[in-house]
From TrEMBL:
EC number of the protein: 6.3.4.15
Organism domain of life: Bacteria
Organism: Microscilla marina ATCC 23134
SUPFAM superfamilies, alphabetized: Class II aaRS and biotin synthetases
Protein name: biotin--[biotin carboxyl-carrier protein] ligase
Keyword set includes Acyltransferase: no
Keywords assigned by UniProt, alphabetized: Biotin, Ligase
Length: 252
C-alpha cells in the first residue's frame, strides 16, 4: 500500500505505513509522546493484531482487506468541553466518503459507529491529549470494513458484501482522507452548527420511536444531542433525558 495519490492539504502528509502492528492508535500515541508529530500524519497498517474500539472493545479486521489507520490532528482551538465537535466532524467525513458508494440507508449510530441498515461498517476511536483547558492533539483511530467477506458477528458487514464489488484500498484511502480533511477544516472555521445539523440529519433512529435499554427497556425517541455530545432521548412521559456513552443501548 505504497502507491497512495493524495489530493489533500495536510492530512496524509506524511503517511507512515506499517505492514503489521498491534494498534495504529497505540503506535501514534507512543510516537507523539517521544517527538513532535506533524498535524495530518497518518499511521496506516495492512494488519492490525490488537485493534481497539470504544471502551476497550476489540476491533475485528481481516489482514489486507480493510482500512485500519490513525490520523494525528491538533485541534488546539477546541476546549475540553467541545471535544464532541471533533467527533461530529470526523464521523461526517467518513459518512460523506461512504455515501459515494451507498444510499441513504447509511447512518451514523451515536456516538460514532457507521451503519448501513443494521450492519456495522466501521467505527472511530478518538483519544485526546489535553493541555490546560484545550485539546493539544487528538489521535483519530478509524476502522472501516471494505473487502472483508465474512464476520463472526451477524451485525457487521463490508462495502464489498453490500455492493458486490471489490475495491482498491489504494484508491479509496485518499478519498477518505480528503473527505475527513474537508469536514475538519469546516470545524476549524467554526461551522459547528452546520456540522451538527448535518450529523443529526444522518443519525441512526433520530426523531422516531424505538426501544432502548438503560436501567430498563423503554420506548423513546432521539431528539438531538446536547453541547457535550450526550444523546437526548424523549421518553414515554415526554421528558427528555441526556445519556452518556454506555448509559443507553439501542435494541435492534
Amino acid at each position: 500500500m505504497h502507491n497512495l495519490t493524495l489530493n489533500t492539504l495536510f492530512v496524509g502528509k506524511p503517511v507512515i505505513h506499517l505492514p503489521t502492528c498491534h494498534s495504529t492508535n497505540t503506535y501514534a500515541r507512543n510516537l507523539a509522546a517521544k517527538e513532535r508529530v506533524v498535524e495530518g500524519t497518518v499511521i496506516l497498517t495492512s494488519e492490525q493484531t490488537a485493534g481497539r474500539g470504544q471502551m476497550g472493545n476489540r476491533w475485528e479486521s481481516e489482514p489486507y482487506q480493510n482500512m485500519t489507520l490513525s490520523i494525528v490532528l491538533c485541534p488546539t482551538f477546541l476546549k475540553i468541553s467541545e471535544q464532541f465537535h471533533l467527533n461530529i466532524a470526523i464521523s461526517l467525513g467518513i459518512y460523506n466518503f461512504l455515501n459515494q458508494y451507498l444510499d441513504d440507508e447509511l447512518k451514523i449510530k451515536w456516538p460514532n459507529d457507521i451503519l448501513y441498515k443494521h450492519y456495522k461498517l466501521g467505527g472511530i476511536l478518538i483519544e485526546n491529549v489535553i493541555k490546560g483547558q484545550y485539546i493539544e492533539h487528538a489521535i483519530i483511530g478509524i476502522g472501516l470494513n471494505i473487502n472483508q467477506g465474512g464476520f463472526q458477528t451477524p451485525k457487521a458487514s463490508s462495502l464489498k458484501l453490500l455492493t458486490g464489488q471489490h475495491y482498491s484500498l489504494e484508491e479509496l484511502i485518499p478519498k477518505l482522507l480528503k473527505s475527513i480533511e474537508e469536514t475538519y477544516l469546516r470545524l476549524r472555521q467554526y461551522q459547528v452548527n452546520d456540522l451538527k445539523n448535518e450529523y443529526l440529519g444522518c443519525l441512526f433512529r433520530c426523531n422516531k420511536k424505538y426501544t432502548f435499554k438503560s436501567d430498563v427497556l423503554f420506548e423513546g425517541k432521539i431528539v438531538g444531542i446536547d453541547e457535550y455530545g450526550r444523546l437526548l432521548v424523549e421518553g414515554e412521559t415526554q421528558e427528555v433525558k441526556a445519556y452518556n456513552f454506555k448509559e443507553i443501548a439501542f435494541i435492534y
